[in-house]
Design a protein that fits this description.
Strand content: 15-25%
Distance between the termini: 84 Å
Helix content: 40-55%
Shape: elongated
Oligomer: single chain
Number of helices: 10
Order of helices and strands: HEHEHEHEEHEHEHEHEHEHEEEE
Length: about 325
């Protein structure tokens, strides 16, 4: 049987071409399945509030078709910078940021801006707003105006109180304090005995409250810049056997504080909505990636006052349906 050499060569070439085509298609298929990445950078995951914020942002970005990775800055601007360095060299399309510090975080956001990666701030703002595309934050000032009004009502406009502040470098700390004082400072018979920071930390708040009770014999109330510190302050008060004699006010809407309000241990809190902020940030990032550029620079999210009268309407960081 005579074999045609030309036919053999032609067949071999066709097989090779088919093989290359197959592998090429496999590569194309793989490439088409790769997802764009979005980074979610959170100030700390050592606080239930920020866990909800971070996980919700990640979940919403995933729903929108992205690969979302969560980074914990441990309340450390240097750690946040490390995360940004990694993100900027790893082909991320957007960053959803909960800043560690209003000033220190600016350099990271500007670095992302220079690299062409949009940043959307959640809950906390930075002091150079134009570096980010948008900042979705709670209306802390107005939320604490409402808390201040209720504070005055519960103390009937007179008494001694102390204030426990959050992180000094966080604008939320001062916006909450300013909102509160915009009301209570109009009542001369309400006297602030002390104002100290506890860095939004439960253990530090407990220690601060213990020291304040030793320094001042008569404290009628304590206003805390977040719910974690409110729980720390309450623990100190309870340990000292002063349950009910010192009224505790918080801010956030954490489940344990909602429960404590129901149980009469804490007077009130300002309910923030981290899920709303996180989802909005993820949706803004998606729209930006798809070409939209017209975003509101600051998006305030309303805060609602939660007291014993309406606590049944609220759950953990959200309003019941």
């Amino acid at each position: 049987m005579k074999i045609n050499l030309f036919s053999l060569l032609l067949t071999a070439l066709l097989i090779l071409a088919a093989g290359f085509g197959f592998f090429s298609c496999q590569g194309c298929k793989k490439k088409s399945q790769d997802k764009d990445k979005i980074a979610v950078v959170i100030s700390t995951l050592n606080n239930p509030w920020f866990v909800v914020l971070g996980e919700t942002a990640k979940e919403r970005a995933t729903e929108l078709g992205y690969e979302a990775l969560l980074f914990d800055s441990h309340n450390n601007p240097a750690r946040e910078t490390e995360h940004f360095n990694k993100i900027l060299s790893s082909d991320y399309k957007a960053i959803l940021l909960n800043p560690t510090d209003a000033n220190a975080s600016v350099v990271n956001v500007k670095a992302a801006q220079k690299a062409g990666i949009p940043v959307f701030c959640m809950d906390r703002e930075i002091n150079e707003a134009e570096s980010s595309v948008s900042q979705i934050i709670s209306d802390n000032f107005e939320g604490c105006v409402a808390l201040g009004q209720y504070f005055v009502k519960r103390l009937e406009g007179k008494g001694n109180y102390v204030e426990i502040l959050g992180i000094v470098g966080d604008n939320n700390t001062w916006n909450r304090s300013k909102g509160f004082h915009s009301v209570v400072d109009h009542y001369p018979q309400l006297k602030m005995l002390a104002q100290q920071t506890a860095d939004f930390d439960i253990n530090k708040a407990r220690e601060v409250m213990e020291a304040l009770m030793k320094a001042h014999s008569q404290i009628d109330a304590v206003f805390c810049g977040n719910d974690v510190m409110a729980m720390g302050a309450y623990q100190a008060i309870s340990d000292a056997g002063k349950d009910g004699s010192i009224l505790v006010f918080g801010f956030d809407g954490a489940q344990n504080v909602i429960n404590a309000i129901k149980e009469g241990k804490i007077e009130a809190t300002g309910m923030q909505f981290p899920k709303t902020m996180a989802r909005t940030a993820a949706e803004f990032a998606d729209r930006y990636i798809k070409g939209e550029r017209n975003f509101q620079q600051k998006v305030p999210v309303a805060v609602e006052l939660v007291t014993r009268d309406n606590v049944h309407k609220y759950g953990s960081f959200e309003k019941n349906e």
